[in-house]
Structure formats: C-alpha cells, structure tokens
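Incident log, entry 3
Record: Protein pellino (399 residues)
Problem: checksum mismatch between cached and fresh output.
Input:
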Amino acid sequence: MIILFCRYNGFLPPGDRGRKRSKFVLYKRQVANGVKRSKHYVVKTPHCSQAILDATQHSISYTLSRNHAVIVEYANDEDTDMFQIGRSSESPIDFIVMDTVPGDKSAENKVMQQSTISRFACRILCDRNNPKIARIYAAGFDTSRNIFLGEKANKWQENGREIDGLTTNGVLIMHPRGSFCGGDAKCRYWLETSVGGGVFTTRESRSAQQKGQRVDEENNILQDGTLIDLCGATLLWRSAEGLAKSPSKRDLEREIDEINAGRPQCPVGLNTLVIPRKITPNENQQQPYVYLNCGHVQGLHDWGQDKDSGDRKCPICLELGPVVKVCMGLEPAFYVDTGLPSFAFNPCGHMATEKTVKYWANIAIPHGTNGFHAVCPFCASPLSGSPGYVRLIFQDNVD
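Fresh output:
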C-alpha cells in the first residue's frame, strides 16, 4: 500500500528521503504496534491523570469542561500496525506532510501563512492478517502517546457511553465509486472521519462547531484511490493490487518515446519537437508548447504574440490564447488507465491519458475553510476554464 502527495510529480523538490518524501509505502512491521480501545473513565484533572502521565500508555483525553474530562485508554493490538501522518518531525510521525504550494514551486520559495495541517494529523491502522483493511482515524498520538481534545473541540457521547470527536480542521476522505484503475471510476462526495473512526458528512466550514450527520452506510476503510485531505495537503491512497494494474514509470517513458518517434514538427520554425520527461527552466528550441484554447502543439516562436496580454495567435487556426510548455505527468499512481498521453491540463500543461485527465478534472479538492476547486494532480495548479483540459494536436504525428 502506498500514500502519495497530490502535487509532487514523483519527487519532492528539496529531496525525497527519510520520512519527508512524495510517497510513503506501508509494509507489515516486524512487530505489531497497533492499538485498540480498552476502557474509558471520567476524571477532574486530565493533565494529572495516570494515563496521561504514563509515557507508555496510549490514551485520548476529551475535555468537556474545566473540571470534567473523559480519558479513553488504548491497549496494544497484536493484529494491527499503526502509521501516523502529520506536519511534525517528531518520531511518532511516520510520514511528514508539508503545505501544498500550487505549481512547480517549493514552499521555501514562497511566503507561507501559518500552516493549517495538524502536527499530528491522522493515523492509519492496517490489519496484519488482511492487508486490504486499512482504517483511517483523525488525530495522531504525540511523543507522550497522548491525544488531547480541548474544551472547544467538537466532541460528543454516543449511546450514553462512548465518546468521540473531531479535530480542529478535520480529516476528510473521498472514496471513488468503482475501480480507480481502469478508467471507469467516478468521484463521490467528501466525508469526515472522527478521532474514533466514525464517518460523517462534512461540516458547513472546515472548523465549524456543529458536526455533520453520521453516514452509517460508509466506513473509514481506505480503498484504492481514496483521497485524504488534511487541510493544506491532499494525499492519494493506492493499494498494492491497484498499483499492479497501473502503468509503471517505464510505461510512461515508452509513451513519450512513441510520441517523439513521430517527429512532431513546429509549423513556424519547421523544427522537430521533443517531449521532455521533466520541465527545465532553460529555453529549448525542441521544447513543445500547447495553445490552451485550441490544443495545437508547436515550438516557441514570436509569431502572433499579443504584447499587451502575452497571449499568442495560433498560426494554424488563428485562435488567440495562452501558451504553456508541455510536460509529461510522470507519477504513475495518478493514472486511472494506460495509453497514449493525448490530453493536457489547463493551465499547467501536464500531459496524461484522456481518462486520467478527465477523472481529475471532475474532482473538487478542498481549498481553504469551505472552498473547493479542481487541480492538476501532478502540480496542484487550479484548473482554468471549462473543462480544465485540452486535447493535444501534434503536427506530422498521430493525433
């Protein structure tokens, strides 16, 4: 099983090492480290309770008032492995996530506002006996093995006994309808998972005090293609079975080679174009560009340039519009099918297969406290126009 950042085209700009990387593979641990709910009780001073002070005891503290809290203790579970995700670089976090910066930029090159990603955002418990079962829960245990939900946090008691709650900005999930790999999956609706693993409709805004309605027909078991949103970063969950059906990086490189073998031409410069595997900052006469309003692929030239807007008039169809470099989307796990990359996202120019581009263009990714917009999965650039992509038309090549 694997989790990927939606934004990084196969690698993180500063490096792809340790716990900070663009993808994180979950393996069965040598020794189980999962936990399961054990017992709960009421205390008056939660920060002084034995469970909180004991660094070997996993526990969740739900503060109901200044002198009233419920402590839920967790016991070791030999049947599950636990993996934790969050912004913190402390040792309990297995997969460190960063705030997503749209486009081919890194957070270091842009002034960032205060992060909305929780330091200990969520935890995933994988069944050691059935690897197809991996459940996601809001919030992760800190270095003292505790989770604290303060007095202002959204929390409630169910059936008069069990207590549950939501984190400040929540952990949202979206399960696909149908098989993600195959090109026939459809996007569904976003749901919110609780600290205890319940599934609810989303709140009116990200941190609203009123929780959504419980959705009994849904669960917190991750499926191949499930999206996980942490309010600042969106992750994609891929199963081992699904990845086996997906194209490999070598498959994608062969598709690039096939396009380049057709020797696509620029109708103005009359030079051969070459699809690069990665965008480079340097200008290259062989670098293809796509006219986003019509889809014609050409080289870089000054013909038809509008000096005021920067748009260019296509010399083939005379359509005026923006132009952008064409670059391959190289993260195979974002693809829903295999085949020739014949479409590109608008406005970033990342190429992918038709079904892949159309699938992602129809998914509204959470943005801010209550906004949503479709983005390119390879760079997280918000899509422009309708439908947010363009069919690529090469000259002297199969189109």
